[in-house]
Design brief:
mainly beta, Neuraminidase, four-stranded antiparallel beta sheet, 1 helix, Glycoside hydrolase family 93 protein, signal
Length: 390
Amino acid sequence: MLGQKFIATIVALAISISPALSAPGVEPGIKQRALTYAPVTTKRIFTPPSDYRKPKTLYSRTVQLEDGTLLATWENYSPEPPSVYFPIYRSTDGGSTWSEYSKVTDKVNGWGLRYQPDLFVLPKAVGKLAIGTILLAGNSIPEDLSKTKIDIYASTDGGLTWDFLSSVAEGGKAEPVNGPTPVWEPYLRVYGDDLVVYYSDQSDPAHGQKLCHKISSDGVVWGPVVNDIAYSDYARRPGMATVASSSGAGGVSKRLYIMTYENGGGNSPSGKDFPVYYRISASPLNFAEAPEHILKAGEDYLASSPTITWSSAGGENGTFIVSANSHKEIFVNTKLGDPLEWVKYDTPQSASYSRQVNVLSDPEWLLIVSAGPLAGDNYVSNSVFKLPKS
């Protein structure tokens, strides 16, 4: 009964939904060539040298280009000097083999590009940025961790060269506890004709940490801070937001948007730190008013550093797919995010901090690149596998 009521609510909610927010996988407006994929199981992409600082690698991200090329990056704990950077590795055979392609280096601060990269391909032009432009947002932080700055770089040649585009937000010391004022964890998307950056913000004295976003019509000049999740309890630490949208299938005429996040200090029936929660909204710019749900499959609860994506495969509604640090499995939902309809499926890839699932150009196939756990002696690997069937 609850499931039927939930679907009815979602259908009503979707009536008012406006322009699409692009999500991971096949972006609206970009036509990708057909590719044939084959399973890949924990293929090593990068093994750090022995002089790297632990955890050596962390926080991996991928995108697929129009021609099928895959790009991957991660936090890279190379010895300093020189300043740390985000490596770009490339695969032209569906994730079977990878090679170093370029580096994204700090060109404006002299600090390095240290934490939390996010890769994104523009599905349409934004200002003077052409369709297909690759963007990388990341946290520029000096070696002493005294400052944080979310900067964006752009590539117009498939990821070979990168130019500084803009700064989104600045903050204080990179310390993930209440009191310091850093900014963290940028996440890029397009909504309508604008570029949106979601991020975590500790600079508001009313909140230990909150989730918010800024909007830009050109990727250069950014609007004011808009709160997405900001609890009245100062001690709460919602973080690591990612957003996915459905296509409007399954009798829902418009798109739905889901934001997943870790809820530091929130109710955790499993006892795990940073339980994963999510919200469903008619607009990706208005999660603040949406009810929140804890994410679980049966009595199995996800925790820590979630990411979400959506595939058009898996049924009339498509499939929302969530990964988190607590599990090697993925949690999938073919019922428009109904809280009672999450199902857990195994993957060939190990659990990893902020592990991203990417839907490939054939929506039946998924890519996971892992860069290891927080306290690991890590390397980077990937797996390619078919979307599990319900």
